Amino acid sequence: MNSRVTDKIATSIFVLFAAIMAGTLFALLGYILYHGFAVIDLDFLTSNSSSFREGGGIKNQLFNSFYVLFITMLFTVPLGIGGGIYMAEYAKPGKVTDFIRTCIEVLASLPSIVVGMFGLLVFVAWTGWGYTILSGALALTVFNLPVIVRVCEDAIRSVPRELKEASLALGVTHWHTIKTVLLPAAFPGILTGVILSAGRVFGEAAALLFTAGLTTPNLDFTNWNPFNIHSPLNIFRPAETLSVHIWKVNTQGIIPDVREVADGASAVLVISVLIFNLLARWLGSVIHKRMSGSK
Amino acid sequence: MKFVLDKKQERVTKEKEKKNAILKVRNLNIYYGDNHAVHDINMDIEEKSITALIGPSGCGKSTFLRSINRMNDTIPIAKNNGEILYEGLNILEDDIEVVALRKEIGMVFQKPNPFPMSIYNNITHALKFKGIRKKKELNQIVEDSLKKAALWDEVKDRLHESALSLSGGQQQRLCIARSLALKPRILLLDEPSSALDPISNAKIEDLIMELSSEYTIIIVTHNMQQASRVADKTAFFLSGDLMEYDETSKIFTNPSNPKTEEYITGKFG
Amino acid sequence: MTNQSEAVKERLVKKKNKRSPEFRGKVIILGSAGVIIIAAIAITLFLTSKGLQTFIANGVSPIEFLTSTNWRPTDENPVYGAVPFIFGSFAVTLLAALFAAPLGIGSAIFMTEIARKWGQKFLQPVIEILVGIPSVVYGFIGLTVIVPFIRDHIGGLGFGLLAGTIVVGIMILPTVTSIAADAMRSLPQNLRDASYAIGATRWQTIYRVLIPAALPSLLTAIVLGMARAFGEALAVQMVIGNARNLPDSLVEPAATLTTIITLNMGHTTFGSVENNVLWSLGLILLVMSYIFIVIIRFLSARRKV
């Protein structure tokens, strides 16, 4: 066969592969959103779920998802930034740094179900808390921390070396330089990474099954006392998140309208991830523009 | 240009009177890992003078400059031995408070590197760290240092705009102002105008000469005209060795080392 | 002169017993690094010791555990053979990689070598979004689209290894594509120029020059995809049918390590044998993720570009 014919055939195969991939992925997004929009309305988002009757909503699950995400970020962001600073600024090439890098790699590659099992062992059983939001958030912290550490390390490393030298040459200490020059300059990168990872945390289910549990107590949204079991803010209560809910209604649900609830919940989940994604891109570019001084 | 030369002539005559060496470099060696970058340097640098360090790329002049305010500390593989005596104190010792040292020996880099903040905050960044918080005092220092750096008239109405909106030459003068705000005694300039256009370059040179009445200035430059225009003394580096160090006029008219002559006449480099 | 020297000394020499101003910062930073180390070590140690309980405290034979195909934890004479689950996990992982690797790498080459602009502007963001789609959503799609499709057109109940493979394959496709595209993009342009300059066609350039040069990174993309497939729990659990026997065909219900853990962790009493064996299955997952790390390290050491 002549090489030009082979080239043509090969090119068409690559185009075909890309088309199959893009087609599958678009079909998938389209399917979710199309079926979801048929279900989602204000009532669906704001009514309680039902365990056996039709017409349940996802109010508590939606709240739980955001609340667990918030608590997780409360732990992950400071720790992740600290770890990122360490890796970018303090880690000297050598055995200790290699070891920490290995630890990050281990944490990043653990299957989320394994993280969930660890959470069950330590945050649920050993502490005696039982299934709680706090246990779930701590498990998700383990799951998310390596991502944030990498994001922060990359963002800090990508700050031009000249800026750091300028500050050091003015007799400012390394730590103060980190706080006032490096972190602000790395902020857009960190923010983008944090929001993207928030999308991942938001959709995670396997790590939460054994830590935050499969149920939610009756929540009274007028009760803002974080120590009351019926208060949505209580971090020592079990909480079923949106993704866990999708799994639960599909595998053990006895409600007759499984399909509708799952359609709606999946679409809400996907839309949330889309929003996180777009928000990250948009905020990243806006802050970048503002900081680089172009008007 | 004539004006510049006159000004220099005037200064040279004044120069003759003071002879206090603020820096004395003794047997300084610097290594980058296995690379012996600077070999056994000895030189005295006089107070309130301009010293130019010239030589081809990679000859060790920037490495040497960076050791004077311990910027080489930021490069983990950089090691040194020997002494740099600043007012008689060896500043290469481990017990030197590097942060305090860098306030007295400031540095301006080749590429203008203002912080991505307002012009005002660029100058107050280090002052706030030093503990100066009073608005009035800060304002005064900002004004003084911008005036000294001949930038005040250009930016006084836009102090709170981003420093990145300034032109390259203005940015570099801001970087100089930022160092001056700390009232240093020595100013290290690492090819401060090589990234700038000729007009900005001339402004920076004027500024450097102005500043030498108050500060000791050491400037690394690739530009031999620049060295001959501004420097009182010139040191020629080659492959990590200090080949010749003398009055600038002598170096450029009657160098004693044939290598120096080859370099300044453009035979290599 | 000496006076001046004394003054300089006073200003520049570190004061003894004065805490370095960096100290507080360093404590915070070291604390964060410490948490990472503690977390990694704690997970490894706790899960290992818990996973070994089955063999140490309950006397289950590790050989039986790793070789028997029978999983009957509730019998009078309980048998704990994990082979069906180990087989299921490897089968799903390898088949999914077989599906996702050519499609993913092919698409990556399309994006980087054939339609750069289009790939960059259009496919890249789509892929990035799809990497972030939660796995339960993939599982749900599998349940509502793929399982009925298999049931109607191929046979069986629809639930089985095939459904699991397709779901996981689609799930890891964006991951493989995006890492492979990064690898292709990081190839130096002069590789391409050199090949085109001697008159090679695009396919010859891709096949003889670019793929060999990017091979370690492309393999890394596949291995990372496989690692994700191996550890995926809920999406697989929703479509695989959850049988405890070795399946005879791709369309018969099966199970994997993760699905059996997902299903039974909540139904068994903490500390019982039936519960402990689940932790032993978890230990296999942990060991596998270490093996994936070793493979990826091996590959990245061979990376040429």
Write structural notes for this entry.
The complex is a heterotrimer of chains A (295), B (269) and C (305). Chain A is mostly helical. Helices cover 73% and strands 0% of the residues of chain A. Chain A has a single domain, classed as Orthogonal Bundle (MetI-like fold), CATH 1.10.3720. In chain A, helix 3 runs antiparallel to helix 8. The model of chain A has no long low-confidence stretch (mean pLDDT 89). Chain B has a single domain, classed as Rossmann fold, CATH 3.40.50. In chain B, the strands form 2 sheets. In chain B, strands 6-7-8-3-9-10 form a 6-stranded mixed sheet, with helices on both faces. Chain B has a 4-stranded antiparallel sheet with strand order 2-1-4-5, with helices on one face. In chain B, strand 9 and strand 10 form a beta hairpin. The model of chain B has no long low-confidence stretch (mean pLDDT 88). Chain C has 305 residues and is mostly helical. Chain C has one domain: MetI-like fold, CATH 1.10.3720. The chains are: A mainly alpha (295), B alpha/beta (269), C mainly alpha (305). The interface between A and C is large, with 91 and 86 residues.
Q: How much is the radius of gyration of chain C in Å? A: 26 Å
Percent helix range of chain B:
25-40%
Instruction: Quickly give the structural class of chain C.
Output: mainly alpha
User: What's the CATH architecture name of chain C?
Assistant: Orthogonal Bundle
Distance between the termini of chain B: 26 Å
Main beta-sheet strand count, sense and barrel state of chain B: 6 strands, mixed
The tally of strands of chain C reads: 2
Oligomer: heterotrimer
Count helical runs of chain C.
12
